[in-house]
Design goal:
extended; mainly alpha; 76% helix
Length: 406
């Protein structure tokens, strides 16, 4: 019996090896088989050129094409445009419902294994790096948390990302050759990795120029210990930044534009926008919600194309704390109607508001008997879209709720 089992296992192994060899040979042959088919078709056309009257047919088709009027080409262009529009509309509706492209899903699911010859599915990276519009103040909030818990909430990766943003926003290489020594000092300060070194350089720059905007911003972010101190420093920085920006605009109006580079003007604008956004966040943390909402709305109105700081997400947070759900819906309607979702804040806020609108009248018994209504289906789709975009948010939220109950 043992010998029969071993023989059967050997036969199974030989059959599997034979099938794998056949599959490998087929995959190898498909890479060159198209060339054989091409040569075969050319050979058949050459052999059958007389019975098929290829030369006469080619001359006849050329004569037909030359006799076509411009109306035919106009009709052809209009028909192709109509078909393209229908396909685009179908793609948009399919994406709105299922969160992916129909053509891409079909090609990846059915055509990719045939053309690529691999059964391994394509994996998407789990890590999505987005700027955090709700980032706290390092001195007034993160440092206090570290002192209270003996644990740092920021990783080295977080600090590096923030440092890159600060360098891109607040410094430029021309600062090293600037007549204002404070700008040269702050260029070095933004590139320091240690907190104490950055703060010391910022204080040194502030001693050279008491109205150095970059130094005031760095001290407000990393040295101030309370939100009131942060707000005081940012107000001082805002007054200095506004005066510098007005002075620069006055020079441009007077015809001295060649003395002001675009990078310099962009940096001053970025500083003003950043400071006003942080002042609005200070007002929110101090409970002045209406003032914070007004500041953020003014920023969005004055700089509608500057989406780098994601001020609209800060506005959504404030409006939710004010329970102004109708205004939240207006903001979301403006920033959620795009091909790709902007962030987890937008996705989850849309999902929660849609679920909130149907949860009061929702009944599992009625849903099992009659099925989901269109509004309930929309809410479920929004929840699926949010979870697909970032599946870690529900887990983190549940952990926070458990820690609060404990």
């Amino acid at each position: 019996a043992d010998e029969n089992d071993s023989r059967s296992e050997e036969n199974v192994d030989e059959n599997e090896n034979m099938w794998t060899r056949i599959k490998l040979w087929l995959c190898w042959s498909w890479t060159y088989l198209w060339g054989v088919w091409f040569l075969l078709i050319v050979f058949l056309l050459w052999i059958l050129r007389t019975p098929l009257r290829l030369r006469e047919n080619i001359n006849y088709s050329a004569m037909v094409m030359s006799s076509l009027s411009p109306k035919f080409y106009v009709a052809l262009t209009g028909t192709s445009s109509l078909i393209s529009g229908v396909i685009l509309m179908f793609e948009w509706l399919y994406y709105r419902r299922y969160g992916q492209s129909f053509i891409e899903s079909i090609s990846v699911r059915y055509l990719s294994p045939i053309l690529g010859g691999s059964d391994t599915p394509t994996t998407t990276p789990d890590c999505k790096v987005w700027r955090n519009p709700m980032n706290l103040f390092r001195g007034a909030e993160y440092a206090r948390y570290r002192e209270a818990t003996r644990h740092s909430a920021l990783t080295v990766y977080d600090v590096d990302l923030t440092a890159q943003d600060h360098q891109a926003f607040f410094s430029r290489e021309q600062d090293l050759e600037s007549e204002n020594q404070a700008n040269a000092i702050m260029y070095k300060a933004w590139r320091e990795k240690k907190d104490k070194s950055r703060i010391e350089l910022a204080e040194k720059a502030l001693a050279v120029d008491p109205n150095c905007v970059s130094a005031l911003v760095l001290l407000a972010e990393e040295k101030a210990q309370t939100i009131l101190e942060v707000e005081k420093l940012f107000k001082h920085a805002h007054r200095s930044a506004e005066s510098q920006l007005k002075r620069m605009q006055q020079m441009v109006r007077e015809g001295h534009r060649e003395s002001i580079s675009d990078l310099h003007q962009r940096r001053e604008t970025n500083l003003c926008v950043y400071i006003r956004r942080r002042l609005a966040m200070c007002a929110r943390k101090l409970g002045r919600y209406r003032e914070a909402a007004k500041l953020m709305k003014d920023l969005i109105k004055e700089f509608p194309l500057m989406n780098v700081l994601n001020v609209h997400e800060n506005l959504v947070e404030v409006l939710l704390e004010m329970q102004a759900y109708s205004e939240v819906q207006q903001v979301l309607a403006k920033y959620d109607d795009i091909s790709l979702p902007k962030s987890a804040t937008i996705c989850y806020t849309v999902a929660l508001l849609k679920a909130r609108s149907v949860c009061e009248k929702f009944s599992p018994e009625n849903a099992s008997r009659r099925g989901l209504s269109p509004t309930e289906v929309t809410a479920v789709d929004a929840i699926h879209r949010a979870v697909e975009f970032n599946p870690h948010v529900p887990k983190v939220s549940l952990l926070k709720i458990d820690s609060l109950h404990r």
